[in-house]
Predict the 3D structure of the following.
Amino acid sequence: MISENPIPNAKIMYFYSNVAAALHEIKLYKEALAYYERMVEVTEHNKLWIPALICMAHCQRMLELEVHIPFVEEEKQSSYSKLIQLAYKYFVAKSVKPFAKSNFILKEIAPNLVENVMITIFRDEMNLIANEMNAYKGIYLFDEIIKNNRNDN
């Protein structure tokens, strides 16, 4: 349908992003990833929506794939909230030790989390890290920070 109609790329990006987000929300990660990948194919990198790239990275992690999301220029990143910038930075960082990842989430990201989608993404990250390190205290600390965030709001 999309290939048969002259639709601006921005609208196509939102279409793919919205379908992917709906699939991501119900944990159909493989299907969501396919739509995120299509979104990236049809969109110039400087016009990509960073929250969608964060969800794309989450799908890749949940499918035990290497995270591969497009690089977005610093100027574009700075137009987003601190939380989105930190989450994007987390997923594009390479060769970071699990302990450092866990600390980054606990110290930089978790204190800013209030939205359910982002909480789920980073709780899943903490679970993956805990399983990798065979150390589960970080999950408890993460949940305590989230509980405090919700009490503050």
About this structure: Residues 116-133 form the longest helix (18 residues).
